[in-house]
Model the fold of this input.
Amino acid sequence: MNISEQARQLILDQQNEWELAMKNYAGLKHVKTRKLAFDGFDMLVQFNPERIRSSAAKVDAKSVEARPCFLCRQNLPKEQRGISVLNKYKILVNPFPIFPEHLTIPYEDHTDQLIEDKFGDMLDLAKLLEDFTVFYNGPKCGASAPDHFHFQAGIKRFMPIEHDYKKGLFFRDSKNIDRLEIIQWSDYLRTILTFSGRDKDLIKKSFSMLFSELKTLQPAEPEPMLNMLASFEGSRWTVHIFPRKLHRPWQYFETGEKQILLSPASVDMGGILITPRKEDFEKLTMHVARDIFEQVCLGEPAFAGIVNDLF
Done:
């Protein structure tokens, strides 16, 4: 079996070997979803109580330092086993799934969640895991372990953005530069830039240029705030980049009726809004979703200016 097939088999095997995985994957069958129908595209709201650990994770430096790292090899549950790849990552089953097949891919060493030097690894993993979409959450963009570098991956064709990308209805500007397609999206609730091409080095170079420019907007941050999705199909990589300006919306920090415990990360950017509490699942409207994404995403005009200057 190739790595992608091995990973899918691992998910099945771990459900037989590990009670927590068995319970939570079985629980996915009872997860509730509903649709928010925007103009020309849909978003899904998922009520998934087991995701409370991620949505409510305390990621300030003091809280992170006070707890053992749950991605370090010595702290993994005894039932959890994985697949070594690229001589530096371990593919693990995510025991608190969003997708029907959901992986966590930590770096072997305990090192901070910073993508600049590991973007090429993301492309390599997307190629190895051909049945999955690989995603990255920045340290202030949904990563519940900002102290230990990791990717995640979910089975393809689960997120609405994957279908909307194929339709191409929200492409504001598309250009080909040296065999690389560069696409800016518009009127899609989230600010997105997509790279699509066969040349890995060219994608890496283009990402590095964008990353360096975004750094200048947020010089106080350890890295520019962003989420990313990457997949490989038909000898071609597709990378969606979501530039951010805020970690969590004001609704997250409210109390009582005004609180909505939604901490946007890559899957939310991909069109599935994860709500771990029933009350949030019920009161998350199109208006509220629009407000949340306007708060956390870098605005389209500012980002379009950066992209047009670079490419």
